[in-house]
Amino acid sequence: MVLPNGSVLSFRSTKYISNDINDVSVLTGANINEVLLDSHRFKCHMNAPSTCSVNRPYIQPVQITSEIHLLNRVFNGSEVSTTLICQYPIQITDIQMPSFLGPNEQAVVNINFTNISARSYGECSDSAGSVEFILSTNSLIKVVLMNEKSLYQITSDGRGLYRINDKILPKSRRHIRFKIALDNKVKNQVYENLFWNIDLLLRDTLIERRTNNIRVIPLFMPNIRADLLLVTNSQFSRAEFLAYQNLFRLFNYSSQIWDIERYGVLYNSELKWLNTADLIIFIYSNPQSTFNTIKSQLFLQHMNSSENAGFICIGNCESNELDFALFDYNKLKFINTKQKKKSEVNNHLWSSIGFRRPNVEELIEKANKIRINFEKQEDHKFLYQVVYNNAINTETTHFMKVIYGNKYLYKSTLDSQVGNRLIMITSANSLLVASHLPFPLVTPPLNSNRQSDIDPLCKKTLHNKSELSRIIQSEIDLTSNFDRLLCALLFYQGFEKSHAIISEKHELANCVFKIGLNKFSFDEVLASLAMSIIEREYDRGTLEFPLSKQLVQQIANVIQKGKDTTYEHGRYNNKWFYLLIQSLSEYIDSKFVIFFHWHNYTEKVKQRRQLMKILHDLHSLSTYKILTNKQINQEVRKLRLQKLANLKFPAADKRENCVRSINEIQAWIEEQKFNEIESSTEQLLYPYVVQKF
């Protein structure tokens, strides 16, 4: 088709570009297959975006389309499109900002930017436009001057204003710096996220914004002694912190915090946490914090540091994961030379085929027999573990006898008594606020512009001052993380201190504990705690029941102080004592053994005799004879606090299997070395964690 003379060439305006309607070119005619070159230069204006780009430079593909009109109609086939990449010439490349700070801490903010264009910017004669950076923060983050010659200003509303007052060369990279400090008032806002914004302005127009938060993490003070040390991680929130504070107030515990995000795992070379607290509560959040990176020497030092030393772990962990802290795998050796030689003599498997490699199940079964025999020698006071090598020793192997690698036997330095202060709360989610809380969780606002956040699961109207003074506002659900941790603390502090909750008329004394359709008073919980101690020793196989006897002595102390096991007007003044005797009586009956003369010296018979002696000692503490009431057997059979709250005691519970392969240990040792080197390198290179954008 022939292009008629007088056709009009133009570019249409779109959302991203604007074109002057008078900016057109009148074309001369052209024949078919003739190339027509138009010398007119069109000028299009790129429209400013309606919103600025957030956390990335503005990059927008823009399509422009030419068209030819004839008699106010588009000439058929004249529309030709092309795509251009539209972006601003000045762009932020990355920002180095601390991801956390503590009260009164200061930090330097580094902002790197680039000029991608062929023109100069800033303050110069050929400048294409001015460039400014504005740092805005939460009111608790103060922008402070770097020094007397700081190149930025602080505005009346506290923002940092950095105007580039020199030349930004084409295709160049630059950086600027601000200094910030956290207000001391953030002590009341720990684990809160405080916002910050960095705005990039070109020719007084906002073209890019970077925004994020600084997390308020408290400082660990090694010179301060507290009741407990809470080990937190990056998933720990402000709401979680408030839930823990309520729990600590409930037990009147003072606390310090060690945050893994800030200080790393528990062997920081610069800070010493050992002997700063009796109890450690470790929030396990794999893979951000694992037991594989806790030095066993430090852990064992802590657990043996005092009679009140304890360790409670909550999270998605298993009991045997703590083995890497209970045993010193860095020293592979048998318990003693004599036993090693004796073991090597029997360290084989018989086979009718000969030269058969033992399978894993056989090795584990044999190893468990070895360690159980050692545990029996000390009445199961200590926990033992066997590490085996399943490589066949070909030099000593012959027909009908297969010799495989050495075994190594480990004895934990924690005895069963210390093991009762080592507790694990296994849960797929380690957060307390992820499940039921027995109180409304109110998060105080950061400032007047924010409203309080109230946990929707715990909304409740408080009607009087007495309700405001109480912490527990509803029933305690033994399936929730908070309430299971509460029970773990009862176990940790022991029977005598837990009983003081009743004598001191603590608010827990009137609380209701529930699991499913079953509800328990604190008296029943106290009896359940005592029964769990007795049952744990029985299951482990001890013959002397040292902890149960210690429990009887504690009960005697309680009775001596309170004189409250008397019988008046048809009821017992102390319900927990009555329930404990009934529960223990039912438990002994359930362990009934048919007595033939050859059974008199079996372990179970000896255990049952000890249980009966413990029951007799309890009866002797009462001023009135307590008769067995079998009508409540079904109710008292449930009184096992460890089972009700689903708690584990890795160093005190009975172990069916306590064996590991030497390959697993060697891999762990290598991982320990790697983690220690990596941790040391990070501390040298990065004094604080930075965020890059």
From TrEMBL:
Domain DUF7932: 1-88
The organism's place on the tree of life at top rank: Eukaryota
Protein name as catalogued: DUF7932 domain-containing protein
Native source organism of the sequence: Rotaria sordida
Source species taxonomy: Eukaryota, Metazoa, Spiralia, Gnathifera, Rotifera
